[in-house]
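Q: Joint fold for the lines below.
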Amino acid sequence: MSAAMDTESTYSGYSHYSGHSKKAHRQGRDRHKSPRSKDGSRSEKSVTIQTPPAEPLLGNDASRAEEGQDDNWGETTTAITGTSEHSISQEDIARISKDLEDSVGLDCKRYLGLTVAAVLGLLVFLTPIAFILLPQILWRDDLEPCGTVCEGLFISVAFKLLILLIGTWALFFRQPKADIPRVFVFRALLLVLIFLFVFSYWLFYGVRILDSKDTNYQGIVQYAVSLVDALLFIHYLAIVLLELRQLQPMFTVKVVRSTDGESRYYSLGHLSIQRAALVVLENYYKDFTVYNPALLTASKSRAAKHMAGLKVYNVDGPGNNASGQSRAMIAAAARRRDSSHNELYYEEADHERRVKKRRARLVVAVEEAFTHIKRLQAEEQQKAPGEMMDPREAAQAIFPSMARALQKYLRTTRQQQYHSMESILQHLSFCITNNMTSKAFLERYLNPGPTLQYDRDRWFSKQWTLVSEEAVTSGLQDGIVFVLKCLDFSLVVNVKKIPFIKLSEEFIDPKSHKFVLRLQSETSV
Amino acid sequence: YSAILTFFSSQQRIEIHKLRQGDNLILGFSIGGGIDQDPTQNPFSEDKTDKGIYVTRVTEGGPAEVAGLQIGDKIMQVNGWDMTMVTHDQARKRLTKRNEEVVRLLVTRQSLQKAVQQSMMS
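A: Joint structure:
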């Protein structure tokens, strides 16, 4: 029974029900419910998250039967781990349920895909050359002589292959910047298409030419040229499908961070959900201010105080109605006339004033410090040799005069853990080297910047999970909502279609711009 | 009884004797309107395309008030001259001719009348 309670407690409402069987996997228990996860029809809605169990949700107590859990297993929520270092595909669900550190099998999957594509590419590239060379090698003497025309065709094949090579390199040989959970549908389609195409060409070649030892060499060469032409067209198709189709914006997504409500809007084209998630995450690191848990404690303590003063006594008997109790508490707390809004108002006003004061002191201190540093001109180098310093020493020289003010300001705005003394000194010497003013130096400290600006250790957000009700390879549509979760917070993404705009024209003749003066005078007589 | 209020226009003939003030002869009222003015800004007209001359102010105790001119009256004729299709300046000139001591105006006035009807049932 305690096991059941364990598995019920999950960290979110979504995977609440699905946490049940994956934990069963993880603990290697032989439960009769575990085969459900391997059910083919539900494989795209599988759940695999390893997170520490949070406190149980309200109303979720031991009385909930296991049969109830099973009925809700058909819930249509999907959570797929898509971490930044591992890639997972559909067939690997069983393996994922093991420890996350065991990543050997997952890496193999990714490299397997890459090697398949590379082998196919090499094969495709060598095929026209093979078509041209094989007759020469095998039955050279029987071939009809083929003069200028063939040589012209050889040159064209060579250059087209070169163009194809450069194009493929430009399009496909790029550093993968992310690992996504599912197969990239269009790429897979293209690989299949190329394979079928080349296979059919080889088939034809093998039957009609190799077997019958065709002597018309010009025809063979033209056959090879047609193959290369068709490959170039497939490359064009690849460009259109992979690159051009999603350039035109069709959807606007709103991304809201769950902890503090910061939101942004982005424009996207026709993308699959997983690629849209990638775009959102790439933009998250540069647009959203860094997640600062220290800023959230104030509201939590207020909420705790609000509910803390209420105690529930059960008068009716031993029946333990947890949900009823909690509802009663919430209702009583709402009716209580307390002055927490007052507290909030004065606290915020006070905080504003303090921040402004400290900011003023900081700005003045830094300005004064920067006036002491002057860039040494070339002629003056001989005049004052004893005082020359490199940027690092200059930074260390003026740092003490502003250190205290800066530290106090960072403490007041709760940013102190994001900036170590070493990083401040480094930034200071950087600013001195590049002739920046005090304002440019302070820009980094006065306002919290995007996540990219800070040290990787402070990011709080490196591994992401995509939670979606639709399959992640399906395209974006109006009204889809998916969530990108990391350990401490989540980004809720809401997709809206850009409305169809009806634009009509109206022609105004420039000669029609004429005006009259309309008066209303009053004269006394 | 049942009472019905209706607007109707009535024409009045008003004779104003000009008052001499220093070098000027004044009538004691102000006019607004004219074919060169904006009729939509006229507060007294019923039809907002009416470009006639209207009385916009009547000074207290002046010759116009004594003669019975009221604010909102539309001036149709001055001494036989038509005032319905004149510019503002022309209207002013016709009213302030130096050699005239008396002006006779034909004005149209909207007034309310209470028509008292006896109900059907006696």
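Q: Anything notable?
A: Chain A touches chain B at residues 518-525 (CB under 8 Å). The first strand of chain A starts at residue 78 and ends at 82.
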